[in-house]
């Protein structure tokens, strides 16, 4: 689907419901006090921009298939010009072989990859305490 004419619309900040979704994912990886610290750091983090291909590489995640219903939904939003929410990530540590974690927005990253892997995605990045 890569099309140089594609323009993706982005919200300035993540949706409020993205933070509880991130916490729900993080509950499988960390204790509640760590999750609270990470969420505070994510809320305070500035929005930066990263390419879809780099987010997938740093997270060591495989791209979801384009027929995944949530990827399809986000591709439809891109096509219709609906604004997407920025991605929330927790920084990894390459020295220890720890990948970055996409704690909210994996489907959006995959949809953007299908649209154009070089599109700059707004991202909030937190480090583990």
From TrEMBL:
Record's protein name: ParB/Sulfiredoxin domain-containing protein
Provenance organism: Nocardia tengchongensis
